[in-house]
Amino acid sequence: MSEAREALNQLVKSAKKEVKIVSGELNGKCYETSSFADALTDALARGVDARMIFHRYPDIQEARDSLYRENEGIVLLKKEYDNLHLYWQKKRNPKHFCVIDSNAIHAEVPHGPGEDREVMVMRNTSSLGKKAEQEFDAIVKRECIEIDIPKKKGSGS
Fold it and tell me: Which residues contact 79 (CB under 8 A, 6 or more apart)?
């Protein structure tokens, strides 16, 4: 596993209140690895609010269908946990970042799909964390649609 992915997993694992991720794709290459899935599942089970923005296709139905095809793990988590929110953004966001509890940031240097990327990880940076969180919230409000995935049958959530 790359250092960048391990750093993201550790940040998600350490979350106490919220995880906010802006991703280009939300595909299984990163987000369905067992270590990320374990970290996210643990966070969700502890009541951490997780919000993820992605762009995969320019059509929302195709983007939703792609989750079922390419990232079954995220779909299953969404069916299980009310505190996981998935947002589709019509245009691919040039900034990919993660904010944990408003004070830790995992930010990727701009790159194209499939390209190698450099990552910066900053901890104990509440001023930058709050700015990144505000940017995330503005993107959701301005440009995103929440993906609806029906709950598991018999789920009490």
Answer: 149, 150, 151, 152, 155
CA distances from 131 to 92, 106, 156 (A): 20, 13, 35
3-state secondary structure of 89: strand
List pLDDT tens digits, range 99-145. 999 888 888 776 666 666 677 888 888 888 899 999 999 999 999 99
Structure pTM? 0.85
Q: Which CATH superfamily is domain 3-146 in?
A: Endonuclease Chain A (3.30.870.10)
The shares of helix, strand and coil residues in the chain, as percent rounded to the nearest 5, are: 40, 20, 35
> How far apart, in Å, do the first and last CA atoms of the chain sit?
33
Q: What is the DSSP string of 4-45?
A: HHHHHHHHHHH-SSEEEEE-S---HHHHTSHHHHHHHHHHHH
